[in-house]
TrEMBL record:
Superkingdom as given in the UniProt entry: Bacteria
AB hydrolase-1 domain span: 22-257
Database matches in Gene3D superfamilies: alpha/beta hydrolase
Protein name: Alpha/beta hydrolase
PANTHER family, A to Z: HYDROLASE ALPHA/BETA FOLD FAMILY, PIMELOYL-[ACYL-CARRIER PROTEIN] METHYL ESTER ESTERASE
Alphabetically ordered keywords of this record: Hydrolase
GO terms for MF: hydrolase activity
Length: 273
């Protein structure tokens, strides 16, 4: 198993393809590098694709101290640098998209461009009274899942998160058993993320100067909290394109892999001339 020591933690990673253009994927909460399995083979035909397990997830090391999104950003930057992939296209899903956007603000020289699907940066909506009931509901759902993890019911917490937050009712049973086990195994790291006071924080001023091309995606079947966040980000990024993936939800790479691959290929091709 290929691992690399960055920032005092062992991270598992895989490189696929021999293309000249690096493409790095950053998975969201609960998940692992395997979440990209349905899109990697196609993209590896034209890119050098890096997938990895973020700290605390699956085959990467889990530390006992309280973690921070800042560590995830530093890990991503170190991976890109240590593996000689800079500048790279970086694509993140959910909390992985939040990490990608934070790195874009701190280390823009490492990116050719970014692709972000539905980052949960709900702090951007805090000043909108119309969003208050929805954000309160999200907070309550996160709290209920966190309490369940803390009680030791990792399987119940994973199912509850999938059905009340991420994918919707009656979706847990539709997930492959190996993916269910990944979610259950990574439950403690989700609790760690929730306990990080910076988890959902973001300042739009951080990315106003990010000039490389940015693609922001949403699914038309996703929870309604995400489009307003993406709209806020799109309002300040200077070189941005936003698209909606028809029929897709919060995990388009898993449910609509062909459409997701085509969106990435089209965007990179358009911005590589």
């Amino acid at each position: 198993m290929p691992t690399i020591d960055v920032n005092g933690v062992q991270l598992f990673y895989e490189l696929h393809g021999t293309g000249d253009t690096p493409l790095v994927f950053v998975h969201g909460s609960w998940a692992s590098h395997n979440t990209w399995d349905l899109v990697v083979p196609s993209l590896a035909e034209s890119f050098q694709v890096l997938v990895y397990d973020r700290r605390g997830h699956s085959q990467s090391q889990r530390l006992t101290a309280q973690g921070s999104v800042r560590e995830d950003v530093a890990d991503l930057a170190a991976l890109i640098e240590n593996l000689g992939l800079a500048p790279a296209w970086v694509a993140g899903n959910s909390f992985g998209a939040s990490i990608t956007l934070r790195m874009a603000s701190e280390r823009p020289e490492l990116l050719r461009g970014l692709i972000a699907h539905e980052p949960p940066l709900f702090s951007l909506l805090a000043d909108d009274p119309a969003m208050a009931p929805m954000l309160k509901e999200v907070e309550q759902k996160f709290g209920a899942v966190s309490e369940r993890i803390a009680s030791g019911d990792h399987a119940g917490a994973a199912e509850q998160f999938v059905e009340t937050v991420a994918l919707g009712p009656n979706t847990w049973a539709q997930l492959p058993s190996d993916f269910q086990q990944t979610l259950i195994g990574n439950a403690p790291t989700f609790l760690d993320e929730v306990n990080d006071p910076e988890q959902l924080a973001f300042n739009l001023a951080w990315i106003k100067g990010f000039s490389p091309p940015s693609l922001l995606t949403t699914g038309d079947q996703s929870p309604p909290t995400f489009p307003p966040v993406v709209a806020q980000l799109a309002s300040v990024l200077p070189n941005v394109e936003s698209i909606v993936l028809p029929g897709a939800g919060h995990l388009p790479h898993a449910t609509h892999p062909d459409a997701y691959v085509e969106a990435i290929r089209t965007f990179v091709r358009k911005n590589s001339r």
